[in-house]
Design brief:
The protein is α/β, with parallel strands linked by helices and about 240 residues long. It is about 50% helix and about 15% strand. It is built from eight helices and five strands, in the order H-H-H-E-E-E-H-E-H-E-H-H-H. The longest helix has 22 residues.
């Protein structure tokens, strides 16, 4: 299936020498596969185009937001039983924290990258998750004190009939822990990020392509590939 960019998105590619379709193809490839920018540079040369890895990186930094906006506008509702956990991402030789949540079927609910693992980070994650999704009935977390404190604070602001059941059960959190692997698989070839903004943007692209892969987008076809559903999304 050829990649076609919706006319409403074309304004974002003004003054770029390369075609929107070629740009978004390589943004997709970076976020979908375990490839470095130098791998992508070589693949460009195979196609007969000489574009260096720094330009490819700028494309990712510039255009991942288009994918994020498209996915959020077409994302299917998630379940009301959540599993939440954090995983580690390397930034300049130090660990930072990727907060993530999936529902009981493994569908991605939300993600947020933070420099610290603390109460402020947990609160920020749940605010973002609640803003973009309906309130869940229950959330399963690990033994983290900051996560339980953040949920207790959230429940204080909710009416009694809407308060969230909080469960601390490592076995039930296997779903989210297994799902972390798909994100870490993509970030591993990068050998760590050099800037927080680069990490945040790249991970947003990886997470959004992963949601397309999970068929979480309205209009996606269960019988087609991830790339074909990506193409359907950008053409709509």
């Amino acid at each position: 299936m050829p990649l076609r960019i919706s006319s409403k998105l074309l304004k974002h590619f003004k003054n770029f020498c390369s075609s929107p379709e070629l740009i978004m193809l390589f943004v997709y490839m970076k976020c979908r596969f375990s490839l470095s920018y130098r791998d992508l540079e070589e693949m460009m040369s195979i196609r007969g185009a000489k574009i260096d890895h720094a330009t490819l990186q700028r494309w990712v930094m510039r255009f991942v937001s288009l994918i994020d906006n498209a996915v959020r506008s077409k994302k299917k509702p998630v379940g009301n039983s959540w599993r939440m956990d954090e995983t580690y991402i390397k930034l300049n030789g130090k660990w930072i924290y990727l907060y993530r949540a999936v529902d009981s079927l493994g569908n991605t609910i939300e993600f947020l990258l933070r420099t610290h693992r603390d109460l402020a980070a947990a609160k920020a994650f749940f605010r973002k998750a609640f803003k973009h999704n309906a309130l869940p009935n229950k959330i399963t977390i690990d033994k983290s004190g900051s996560n339980i404190s953040a949920l207790n604070n959230a429940n204080k602001e909710l009416p009694q009939d809407k308060q969230i059941e909080v469960r601390q059960n490592k076995y039930l959190n296997n779903i989210i822990e297994q799902d972390h692997r798909f994100i870490k698989k993509r970030t591993k070839p990068m050998l760590g990020f050099k800037s927080f903004n680069s990490a945040r943007t790249t991970i947003a692209g990886i997470e959004n392509i992963r949601m397309i892969q999970k068929k979480q987008i309205v209009g996606s076809n269960d019988n087609t590939s991830t790339f074909e559903n990506f193409a359907i999304l950008l053409a709509s």
